[in-house]
Amino acid sequence: MLDSLRKAHYNVTGYSNRLQMTRSKASSITIRDVARHAGVSVATVSRFINQTATVSPEVAARVQATMTELRFVPHASAQRLATHKTNALGLLVENLHDYFSPMFTGIESVTTTAGFDLLISSSHHKEFPVTLGPHNTDGLLVFWGSLSEASLMHACDLHFPIVLIHQSPPRELAIPCVTVENKAASMRLVDHLIERHGRRRIVYLRGPDDNEDSYWREMGYREALAAHGLPFDPQLVAAGNYERAVAEAATCQLLRAGVAFDAVFGADDETALGALSALRSAGRRVPQDVSVVGFDDQRMSAYLTPPLTTVRAPTEEVGRRAAQQLVNLVRQKPVEPLILLPTELVIRQSCGCGSEG
Asked: What pLDDT was estimated at residue 75?
């Protein structure tokens, strides 16, 4: 037996109506039922559900209220067939590590609000992923180093929406990019070591060779040295690769080789942590003997011993802005070719501040 439904009253932007109908299973409610009770055409309801065309705010509110009242849930597969959309976005990364946690938070805050599922893949192959391609997602977020130039060109040939994170597109490809300001912040960081703490032999532990962030951080390092009349010494630059173990080994090698240095600038906080470990094992005091600084301001950085002086990068905001760019691309809305987010210096004790005397 069918039960009688409760009466519902609502008033949306000047529109009011009373709905009364017999309760049935949600699956028995059709788009025609929604159209009839909302007083609009089936085509209008379809446009609202599938977002294939704009409807007025008043009509949109009326249709949404009716769908809620009737407990109508659009059939996902039918939507996909009607719109040729998957309602899913992809995120491709080469490696998963601590840096991604706040970035994921930013990405998901946008994709969830926009009604998209988020599919994540980690790959070392740098090839265009079938699992995150046009048949499974409506667009793709690509973290630096995850796709080769040939794969990016292939995606563009398919007119598949892509947004790059921390990576500029090849010159001939018009792919939006979201990244952070690196060079000026690195200059300020090295300036601080020189001017405030009198450091003159500063090691730079760079990231991977193809990483743009590391390149610009090194340019800031070099320009700060030049601005203070300090020569660039290739012996003071080594590979850290954004990996704690690699940075620790590189610092140990410098110590074993007898290279004199009084500060270490790690290209990211993981690199700085590796340097801290090597210096501690060698009996070098931080910051009394050697200052250590990093970049990114990861969550653990404030809790190290000593707390790490670093550059705060707005990682969560990078995720938000990149995801919004991709949503805009998928919905054929305007996007910005480049979003460059500001960074800020975070002074703690590992450089020497707060530990003098």
From this structure: 59
**Residue type, position 217, single letter:** R
Max mean pLDDT among 10-24, 33-47, 68-82 falls in: 33-47
Higher-confidence residue of 79 and 136: namely: 136
Q: Which pTM does this prediction carry?
A: 0.76
pLDDT digits (tens, 9 = 90+) for 169-209: 998 899 999 999 999 999 999 999 999 999 999 999 999 99
Alpha helices in the chain (DSSP H): 31-38, 42-50, 57-70, 76-83, 100-113, 149-157, 183-197, 212-227, 244-256, 269-281, 315-330
**Three-state SS for 281?**
helix
Whether the bond between 334 and the residue before it is cis, its omega within 30 degrees of 0, is: no
CA R_g for the chain? 27
* Domain identity same for 72 and 118: no
* 302 and 204 co-located in one domain: yes
348 is a domain residue:
no
